[in-house]
Amino acid sequence: MSLPQSLRTSVIPEELELIACQELIEIVPFVAMDKTVFISGEFGPLKPPIKSRIPLWMALNLKAKKKCRILAPDWMNVEYLQDRLNRETTQPEFSDLPFRFAEISRILLDAAPDDIDNVDKLRSLLKDLREARQSKSREGLAKLDHSELSLPNLCSMEINEIRPVFIRSMGVMTQLVRTPAQDP
């Protein structure tokens, strides 16, 4: 959802992707490495061909140096995403997806398309899924009630997109509720 600069009061998608890079992901290392200690924790040791779980940022760095193969998360496959798309288009509630699915899928499809099966189909499904969820978000905002809003299963990118509109809408609704009705 593209918003004008005046409505952007939250983080930009690139910042959300940076946050998503802290998520752990599986790799198959091509080189052996001892345990590495970072502020965020210890990772390793890496021993080919044993799978390892490391932060996405580290996997991207190793991938760029051709020192590993990134394994797509369990949810990043055609069957799972097709099922979620079917649920999105047939059920009123949002389907359950990983909180940072939009950011992680974009990063992986951009940085490691050679490590992922059915890249074109995945891109298409993710685009369709995103559009279906955006449509539901717009419908939900149209039905906004000042007393309660429940949108379970929204991902971080979707929350970030509706936050500015929601904040302004709730502010206006609160003012309308507080303002006593005037008789004409």
Report on this model:
Residues 13-71 form the DNA replication complex GINS protein PSF2 N-terminal domain. It holds the Pfam family PSF2_N. The protein has 184 residues and is mainly α. It has one domain: Ribosomal Protein L9, domain 1, CATH 3.40.5. It has six helices and five strands. Helix 3 packs parallel to helix 5. The longest helix has 24 residues, at 119-142. The protein starts with 12 loop residues before the first helix and ends in a 6-residue tail after the last helix.
SSE topology:
Blueprint: H1 13-20, E1 24-29, E2 36-38, E3 41-43, E4 52-55, H2 56-64, E5 68-70, H3 78-90, H4 101-111, H5 119-142, H6 156-178
Antiparallel strand pairs: 1-4, 1-5, 2-3
Helix pairs in contact: 3-5, 5-6
Order of helices and strands: HEEEEHEHHHH
Question: In what range is the share of β-strand residues?
Answer: 5-15%
* Whole-angstrom Rg: 21 Å
**Total individual domains:** 1
Low-pLDDT segments, ≥5 res? none
Please state the structural category.
mainly alpha
Total helical segments: 6
Mean pLDDT: 87
* CATH top-level class: Alpha Beta
Q: Strands across the major sheet, in which order?
A: 4-1-5
Span from first to last CA? 40 Å
The name CATH uses for the topology is: Ribosomal Protein L9, domain 1
Query: Helix content range of the residues, please?
Result: 40-55%
Count of extended strands: 5
The gross shape turns out to be elongated
- What is the CATH architecture descriptor? 3-Layer(aba) Sandwich
Largest sheet: 3 strands, antiparallel
Subcellular location: Nucleus
Main location: nucleus
Family: Belongs to the GINS2/PSF2 family.
Keywords: DNA replication, Nucleus
